[in-house]
């Protein structure tokens, strides 16, 4: 995987507007020099048809925004993972990570 170009991160962020929902723990993207983009949703449950549809919308938005001359192919992937965020594979980098707490009831702010 290659480093993420700044221009690509901005297009991905813009394409994710309105598509992030509570089941998504993190979103990683991978970039290769042959203009292939991998988008991976890490979920807190098993993937379903809604997840597929959501990520297809994101991929379509990215393609429309960037153009096929810069991103020739987009692969979408889903993984149900319970491990800590620090143990997830970031591919080329995370573009979203939800805030997760591991606090007892006594430590939670009121």
Largest sheet: 4 strands, mixed
- The CATH topology assignment is Alpha-Beta Plaits
Secondary-structure element order, as H and E?
HEEHEE
Cα gyration radius (Å):
15 Å
Helix/strand structural class: alpha+beta
Total helix count? 2
Cα(first) to Cα(last) distance is 43 Å
Describe this structure in words.
The structure is a single chain. By secondary structure, the chain is of the alpha+beta class. It has one domain: Alpha-Beta Plaits (2-Layer Sandwich), CATH 3.30.70. The chain is 26% helix and 27% strand. It has helices spanning 6-16, 49-66, and strands at 24-32, 36-43, 73-80, 93-97. The protein has a 4-stranded mixed β-sheet, covered by helices on one side. Strand 1 (24-32) and strand 2 form a beta hairpin. The longest helix is centred in the middle third of the chain and has 18 residues, at 49-66. It is globular. The termini are far apart. The model has no long low-confidence stretch (mean pLDDT 89).
Keywords:
4-stranded mixed beta sheet, 110 residues, 26% helix, alpha+beta, Alpha-Beta Plaits
SSE blueprint and pairings:
Layout: H1 6-16, E1 24-32, E2 36-43, H2 49-66, E3 73-80, E4 93-97
Parallel strand pairs: 2-3
Antiparallel strand pairs: 1-2, 1-4
Helix pairs in contact: 1-2
Produce a short descriptive summary:
By secondary structure, this protein is α+β, with helices and mostly antiparallel strands. It is 26% helix and 27% strand. The protein contains two helices and four strands, in the order αββαββ.
